[in-house]
Specification:
Elements lengths: L4 H10 L3 H15 L4 H5 L8 H7 L5 H12 L13 E6 L5 E6 L1 H21 L7 E4 L7 E2 L5 E3 L1 H7 L3 H4 L14 H12 L4 E5 L3 H24 L10 H8 L6 H13 L4 H4 L5 E4 L6 H4 L2 H5 L3 E4 L10 E2 L8 E3 L5 E6 L21 E7 L7 E13 L2 E9 L3 E2 L6 E2 H15 L3 E9 L5 E8 L5 H18 L1 H8 L7 E5 L3 H11 L12 E2 L10 E6 L4
Parallel strand pairs: 1-5, 3-6, 6-7, 7-8, 17-20, 18-19
Antiparallel strand pairs: 1-2, 4-5, 9-10, 10-14, 11-12, 12-13, 13-14, 15-16, 17-18, 19-21
Length: 546
Amino acid sequence: MKVMAPAAIAFERATKDPLKAQQKVLFEFLDRNKNTEYGLKYNFTGVKSTGDYQRVVPLTDCEAMRPYVDRMTKGEPNVLTFEKPIFFSVTSGSSGHPKFVPITKYARAKKAEVLNLWAYYILRDHPEITSGKILAIVSPEVDGFTPCGTPYGAESGHGYKNLSKAVRRLYALPYEVFEISDYNARYYTILRIAMEQNIATIATMTPSTIILLCQRIEKVKHDVINDIEKGTLKAGIDIPPEARKAIEKNLKPNPKRAEQLRRILAEKTLLPKYFWPGLELIECWKRGTVGLYLREFPKYFGGVRVRDFGYFSSEARCSIPMSDEGAGGTLAISSNFYEFIPREDIGKKEKRTLLCDRLEKGKEYFIVLTTPGGLYRYNIDDMIRVLGFFNKTPVIEFVQKGINVTSVTGEKLYESEVVEAVEKAQDLHGLSVKFVTASIEAGKMPRYVFLTEFSDSLQARKKKGFLKSVEEGLRGISEEYDFNRKAQELRAPVLKVVARGEFERFRAKKVKEGAHDGQFKMPQLTGDLNFQKNFKIEEEIFIEET
């Protein structure tokens, strides 16, 4: 807190004049990279204002930058940054091809500034979290190496593995746990180690990861307790020998803790709210498509507070939440340069690109980034909403990926609209679901299919009521959807109930195929006509045409 206080004071002072802070960071980036190939091509030296920058440098995206980044992966110097990348963060691209994001030492330091400020405000509000361990769940650092030998993989794993020794002692899990590729073995090992310790905070990006971990407890509780008692790690589960060796060297018999867990199990249910009584905070994403999973938190954690991670991606950390309320974070104006395309302009040939001082409360925008890692005017295809302002700086929250919009008859249905309708229907009927994904079913008259796995067994009447409420919600939220339903260009939707365990099976399959476990998000709207083929469907529920 003492170390970070001056940085927090400086940041809050900068929020009083965000345009000045943004100009400073832009010209710092341009000056650093003015002699790169990209800097010479677009005459960074001649850029004297933000207006010059917008006129001279074109809007880009993943595919436009791919040729430059590909050359950097081959070791070619001075392409986008004068610094050589030390790592490439890899994530899925909109074209289906993985995208590589160069991370330089400077870029990592700028991201760390945002992360440190985020941590500062957490410690300010929750000093109690220093009394226990941090249970952080990340993806493995290295997926492979580029042609020039630079590692690439998950930036979360990269950051975790490179923690200082002093900081690493605060974390419950050794890094080697995340190198266990077998889905079941990894989750077992996380529970085996974490249930023995006093956990004060849980940190992982997607709340679905936390819920899946909790759901595992019932299946493995007796084996975990026995392992804790004996100081062992269950034999026969698929853990690489080197990882097992590194993990087991820190395990010791702990019969006292095993007895505590058995007592909890005998008196009530073995849930985190009982065996981690010192849990102070959960840190994860709270907006976008993850709201369904947050609804399950009270069952496992009681009234524990939840702090949003802020809006960030492989490309940049962009916001700093300053409280547990909502999912809004103050725009990180000292770490990246931002432009914003109004939602209504995204399909137009001529798009407005606004600076942060032109944004309006309640409006939605697509965010365009210029980053310390060498991305210039980069449309990341993420939609954000402005919730208000901290001093004069926008407070933003993530809404959805821009590509998550479907339109077969002109209805232009957004994923955020599906999420809102589903959440309202859940509240109305008092039920919970493990996932809901809306997909298109083609035919003479297309319709939307809602693939759903319910948390509990329900009567057909209850399921039908849920579907009707989702339909009514969508028609109230989306004028285009309602118009196309009235015009009978879209049939009434159908609810397809999938078999128990299908969500976990699908998630495990995607992780095995290379998806990062800590970042996996089930889409809640997809235009993939074959998506439902991934699931075993047990029941179909219809509503009357209206």
